[in-house]
Amino acid sequence: MDAIVEMVHVLLRRKAKRMRIHKSGDKSVEFFTSYMQLVLQANITSAENLENYMAQHFFQNDLSSLGPITLANFKQALEIIIRNEE
Fold first, then answer.
1. Which domain does 74 fall in, by range?
2. Strand, coil or helix: what is 42?
3. Which of 19, 43, 55, 78 has its CA 20 to 30 A from that of 61?
4. Dihedral sign from CA coordinates of 37, 50, 48, 30
């Protein structure tokens, strides 16, 4: 499992600035929870800065770009992550 986390860490660091998100379909709470947990485990950012990191690198500074359902799911997942980090 540590090897998988390390591999994800390397990939996230390499692709953080040029990640492509397919706009088809709404992203689920589970998707965002998993993704943000990987970001935190890879020490790319802290829980306190996670929302800003995601806004910049995932949503390209436009939170509404992937639609209202995806945005609502992102916010719900962010609340879960923050609550679990406390």
1. 2-15+29-85
2. coil
3. 43
4. negative
Instruction: List CB contacts of 10: < 8 A, sequence separation 6 or more.
Output: none
The rounded distance, in Å, linking the Cα atoms of 42 and 34 is: 12
Residue 64: partners with Cβ closer than 8 Å, 6 or more residues away: 71
Q: What does each C-alpha distance from 9 to 12, 48, 59, 64, 76 come to in angstroms?
A: 5, 19, 20, 27, 24
* Statement: residue 52 has pLDDT above 90: yes
To 10 degrees, what angle do helices 2-15 and 29-41 make? 90
pTM score, whole prediction: 0.75
pLDDT tens digits along 53-80: 999 988 889 999 899 999 999 999 999 9
How many domains, the chain? 1
